[in-house]
Backbone:
């Protein structure tokens, strides 16, 4: 298992993603799976940077853990933002009018398509805990 | 992340995307990319063969550029997407707005269809 603390800052994202991708490749995960995990990590952490509401400033780093087991990746993200359950929301709907296309809010629908959100809860005062399972290309 | 521009004649421009288009890199190309398609006044084919990774912020850029081209009466067609990129586009149900085909020839045919 790899554990990495990621500052709530876009500048810190790439290093964390690289560490996670390298870990998965070292463990023998297929490239497609490693890229899926990289994507899910990005979308969730970008969401925290852009929309997370934190009581403390600067916000505490998010705690990210990844384990590759039985051909799948189990991803856990803990953060100190205000409560936010990523399981809600609608699936993407095909759009035909470019003027109606969304200019934001694409990240979480993408997460829900790329990962199974196993659990969400509050584990200690002020912290969210989201657990996801990411499998290979379906 | 970088993009190269190839003039395909009076009605189309090819933009060749290379690298990873994500939260870290989108800021490097967002302004010049959109400005290029806006200034050309042409339709655009996006060569995705060298694009290894696409996240939602990258999709937002592609949609923004498509909106600019569409308002000038043009089209945007993608071709040669790698599996990860194709998977993301499919997952977001964007096939009508960002049609993706296999080859440049198919993309050019799509522009005149």
Residues:
């Amino acid at each position: 298992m790899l554990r990495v603390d990621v500052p709530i800052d876009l500048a810190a994202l790439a290093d964390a993603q690289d560490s996670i991708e390298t870990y998965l490749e070292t463990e023998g995960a297929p490239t497609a799976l490693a890229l899926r995990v990289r994507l899910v990590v990005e979308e969730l952490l970008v969401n925290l940077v852009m929309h997370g509401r934190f009581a403390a400033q600067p916000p505490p780093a998010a705690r990210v853990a990844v384990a590759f087991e039985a051909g799948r990746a189990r991803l856990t993200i803990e953060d100190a933002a205000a409560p936010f359950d990523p399981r809600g929301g609608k699936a993407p709907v095909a759009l035909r009018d470019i003027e109606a296309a969304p200019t934001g809010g694409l990240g979480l629908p993408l997460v829900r398509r790329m990962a199974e959100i196993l659990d969400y809860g509050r584990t200690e005062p002020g912290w969210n805990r989201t657990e996801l399972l990411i499998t290979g290309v379906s | 992340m970088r993009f190269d521009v190839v003039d395909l004649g009076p009605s189309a421009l090819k933009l060749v995307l290379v690298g990873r288009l994500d939260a870290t890199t989108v800021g490097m190309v967002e302004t010049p990319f959109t400005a290029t398609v806006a200034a050309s006044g042409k339709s655009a084919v996006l060569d995705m063969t060298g694009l290894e990774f696409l996240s939602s912020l990258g999709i937002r850029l592609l949609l923004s550029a498509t909106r600019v081209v569409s308002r000038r009466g043009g089209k945007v067609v993608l071709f040669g997407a790698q599996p990860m990129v194709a998977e993301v586009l499919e997952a977001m149900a964007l096939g009508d707005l960002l049609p993706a085909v296999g080859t440049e020839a198919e993309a050019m045919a799509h522009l005149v269809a």
